[in-house]
Amino acid sequence: MSESAYAVDIVFCIDVTGSMSPVIDTVKKGALSFHKRLVDAMSAREKAVGQLRIRVVAYRDFEADPGNPVELSDFWRIPEQAKQFEKFVKGLRADGGGDVPESGLEALALAINSPWEREFERRRHVIVMFTDAPAHDLGVGSGTRQYPPDMPNDLDELAAMWGRGRSNSAVMDSGAKRLLIFAPDLRPWTTIADSWSNTLHSASNAGTGLRDVDLDEVIGTIAGSV
Residue 209: which pLDDT band, with cuts at 50, 70 and 90? Predict the structure, then answer.
């Protein structure tokens, strides 16, 4: 990889509960096209992507869906492993979820703890959250067998993992991290957007949100910030 090129890691957190049924196909289409559109947007700014990896965290509700609350992938190298990525995304189905809030904060914690690329000097670590719902407080469903170990106890601890303030708990690279939130104007997403660094929030609603124009605007913002 050339010294001037960027190593880009993208993790998609995708809400796959039943309320996402009206927009799940739009979300999957956006996820599958995101990497190409990002590469094109960066190329238009004379910036090259030398390495691209993608991971997916598809989530439901650890309390309401204890049998299948989360589907995790490893990182795929794109374009070499594009078929595996596409097969995984196309296989996602929107069902379950129980009450309105879902386990979005646990999904975000899993994404933050991803095995990010650290070797290359020019790198970007991007998390993209797609949801039409607010999120439970961290810990809801923690008594189930599938609940991940070592989760933060509350939103403040999750913010520390992201690197808000002067925390020694940060696991994200301060210069590389980007968080894109496609979610309603509800807590905790508004709280995160207002207080976390390097974060963009595009409001979405089930059945009407996640439009292509929104994605293009955010991709352009990312490409312009690297």
Answer: very low
CA distance 190 to 206: 17
Round to whole Å and give the CA distance between 163 and 169. Answer: 7
Cα–chain center distance at 34: 12
Instruction: Judge if pTM exceeds 0.85.
Output: yes
Structural domain harbouring 165? 6-225
* Contact call for residues 133 and 100 (beta carbons, < 8 A): yes
Residue with token string 């899993």: 110
Q: How confident is the model at residue 24 (pLDDT cuts 50, 70, 90)?
A: confident
Question: Does some domain include residue 125?
Answer: yes
- With cut-offs at 50, 70 and 90, classify the pLDDT of residue 164: low
182-198 residue pLDDT tens: 898 999 999 999 999 99
Q: Nearest CA to 177 among 128, 105, 119, 104? A: 128
Q: CB-based contacts of 104: which residues, under 8 Å, 6+ apart?
A: 13, 15, 59, 129, 131, 133, 134, 135, 136, 183, 188, 189
Residue 1 in domain: no
Domain annotation covers residue 59 = yes
In CATH, what number is assigned to the domain containing residue 219? 3.40.50.410
DSSP 135: B
- Determine, yes or no, domain membership for 221: yes
Please tell me the total count of domains within the chain: 1
Residue 20: predicted pLDDT: 85
